[in-house]
Specification:
With 303 residues, the protein is mainly α. It has one domain (11-302): Orthogonal Bundle (Endonuclease III, domain 1), CATH 1.10.340.30. It has helices at 11-23, 27-34, 42-58, 96-108, 114-126, 132-137, 140-146, 153-176, 181-191, 199-209, 219-227, 237-247, 253-274, 285-302. Helix 1 crosses helix 3, helix 7 packs across helix 8 (153-176) and helix 11 (219-227) packs across helix 13. The longest helix is centred in the middle third of the chain and has 24 residues, at 153-176. The radius of gyration is 19 Å and the shape is globular.
């Protein structure tokens, strides 16, 4: 899942870094101030070290984009904010429409680039299909045509209709309930039964739309951290999810959510630059650091 085009300069990264420091919820802040990240196995230490480096390099990401709530952003006309990102502001989405937009985006981004999803979401907004009720009343062939830019449009039209029904049945209860791991597991079980919703889509919806504590594992996570030797290439989704949640565990649900949102977004930003199509992974500074660490450990063991 790739949300944003790589920036040509570092000005946006600097702005994100400032936003994270101001909000006092960044990974570095969690480690140096609250000391709430608990590191146990060495692989967990590697995960924490990687994210501290990524946060320093790229700054706050402000995921998931929610364009319908831009007017509530601190800087609604900012370069990132015009596309729906909100670095340093972790209380979005605030509305039912915003939550529904995230649900739509999580479905539409399956097997396609975010630039295509943005076009499909814009078409949905132009057709005034901004609630699940309106989408369910809309003719199926016309819905497929509207979301055509996202690809697999006939399949995804059916998936959106299925998620719309789940949303209508569950959104109010999830918003009224206290955030907890138990609530997450119960909601995840029902969401995974919805047609077209796999673990990554479900976790994206629950983490970003409902601020529930679950880590999103995508292809970028596997690619980057298997190359770093942190996870096995054949590891299951649930085992990778558990590994990252343990490494980046926090003392409160709200801090878990904020750190895990940023961590997932940072993986995507980094992978686009160093592990995407045509990129030379050998230039990845995380891999250089891992190689240096391995070499140092070998030297120590030989002395």
């Amino acid at each position: 899942m790739s949300h944003r085009v790589v920036e040509a300069n570092s000005s946006e990264a600097s702005a994100r870094q400032h936003a994270c420091r101001h909000a006092k919820i960044g990974l570095a802040y969690s480690v140096t101030r609250s000391r709430s990240i608990r590191v146990k196995p060495s692989s967990n230490a590697s995960i924490v070290s990687a994210f501290l480096r990524l946060e320093k390099e790229y700054g706050c990401q402000g995921w998931w984009p929610v364009t319908c709530e831009r007017k509530h952003f601190t800087h609604p006309r900012g370069e990132l904010q015009v596309d729906g990102y909100h670095p340093g502001q972790f209380d979005f989405p605030r509305t039912r429409r915003g939550r529904w937009e995230i649900c739509c985006g999580a479905v539409l981004t399956q097997n396609t680039a975010w630039t295509n999803v943005r076009r499909a979401l814009s078409s949905l907004a132009e057709a005034r299909l901004t609630t699940p009720e309106r989408l369910l009343r809309y003719p199926r062939p016309s819905l497929s045509s509207i979301i055509r830019p996202a690809g697999y449009f006939n399949q995804k039209a059916e998936y959106l209709r299925a998620v719309a029904q789940w949303f209508i049945e569950n959104d109010g209860r999830l918003c009224r309930s206290k955030r907890s791991r138990a609530l997450l597991e119960a909601a995840r079980t029902t969401l995974l039964q919805v047609r077209g919703v796999g673990p990554e889509t479900a976790d994206s919806i629950l983490l970003y739309a409902y601020s529930l504590p679950t880590f999103v594992v995508d292809a970028y996570t596997r690619r980057v951290f298997s190359r770093l030797g942190v996870i096995e290439t054949t590891a299951s989704y649930e085992s990778v999810r558990a590994r990252f949640e343990a490494a980046l565990s926090q003392t409160t649900v709200s801090t878990c959510v904020r750190v895990w949102q940023e961590a997932h977004a940072l993986i995507v930003e980094h992978a686009k630059r160093h592990h995407g199509r045509g990129a030379d992974a050998s230039l990845d500074f995380l891999m250089s650091a891992a190689t240096a660490s391995t070499t140092r450990l070998r030297q120590i063991s030989e002395t």
